[in-house]
Amino acid sequence: MNQTVVEEVRSVLIPLHEQRLLLPNAVIAEVMDYQQPEPADDAPAWFLGNLAWRGVMMPVVSFEGMRGERVVIPGQRGRILIINALSGDERLSHIGLVLQSIPSLVRVSAENVLPVNPEEDDPDPLVKQPVELDLSPAIIPDLDEIESRVLDVVVNLP
What we know:
Elements: E1 8-15, E2 20-24, E3 28-33, E4 47-53, E5 56-61, H1 63-66, E6 79-84, E7 94-99, E8 104-109, E9 113-115, E10 127-133, E11 136-141, H2 143-156
Parallel strand pairs: 5-7
Antiparallel strand pairs: 1-2, 1-8, 3-6, 4-5, 6-7, 9-10, 10-11
């Protein structure tokens, strides 16, 4: 029996305000210029609002805000990264993530990425794994946790 071994994963390095996320290219639907979303009443500060995209209303969020950090609205180079929701819940097909600039394509392999094991007493549930990519820090986010938190807000909006 032949087994295929994946030696590298095409990924995207995502610039936030003070950190970078690393995601596989397969979960990304699109990158668009930043547009101010329509604010939602009674939503947490990290939930920036909803934006019409391809005929559906898509929630737009700040990853840093979800982590309790300052929400930074991007400038002229800002983008919204549209992530495919993975749960299959029909109430949430995509999530818009606010970026500070254009993401870059990278190839991730065992040679250029190393896991970093932070000594934390209280690990962040939004972080699947901190890593070093080509000796620079990045975060692999927990997409299931992000989606769960966004869905909790979406279903409870008036």
